Amino acid sequence: STGHAQLTDQKFRSHYPQPHEPPVAPNPGHCPVEWFSQSPRDTSTSNRSLSPWIYESKQMADHFPFTYVQAKCLCDGCIQFNKDGPFQNHIFNSVAVYQSRIFLKREPCKYNSTYRLTPVAENVAVACTCVNPKRVS
Ligand SMILES: *[C@@H]1O[C@H](CO)[C@@H](O)[C@H](O)[C@H]1NC(C)=O
Ligand SMILES: *[C@@H]1O[C@H](CO)[C@@H](O)[C@H](O)[C@H]1NC(C)=O
């Protein structure tokens, strides 16, 4: 059950120190151009980035940690400014920056009802950045 999985995750967390996880924020559901006309400005890098992002909670079955946070880009383009203020410029793209992170994957043993934990590398989005679009040649 989910309850059991979370208990197990909590137990593992006390044995294997985990990186600090940034706070999860509600998804505004759109490219938050309005954040850039607010004063005083936010102090968080994720909100001040020209490719702003939020952190959302993810779950991966049979892995430790079971829950982890991942960056999600909020804009397809990037925030830019003209004389009228901030706007989303679709000439550029917001893309996620990934980092490899080690998880322990729970794999059942062939011969009995126990399992073993195998270290596996997974790419986790940690931030977003503004890039030139890929050129189609
Ligand atoms: C980013 O801005 C939004 C809207 O002002 C706010 O709700 C959220 O807490 C901010 N996030 C951080 C990490 O400061
Ligand atoms: C289960 O099987 C594995 C090998 O597949 C063995 O290493 C382990 O000791 C066994 N565990 C038990 C409780 O029998």
UniProtKB/TrEMBL annotation:
Primary location group: secreted
Q: What Gene Ontology molecular-function terms does this entry list?
A: cytokine activity
Q: Where is this region: Disordered?
A: 1-31
UniProt keyword Signal, yes or no: yes
InterPro entries referenced in this protein's UniProt entry, alphabetically:
Cystine-knot_cytokine, IL-17_fam
Q: What keywords tag this UniProt record?
A: Secreted, Signal
Q: Where in the cell is it found?
A: Secreted
KW Protein biosynthesis (keyword) present: no
Task: Return the similarity comment.
Answer: Belongs to the IL-17 family.
Protein's name in the database: Interleukin-17C-like
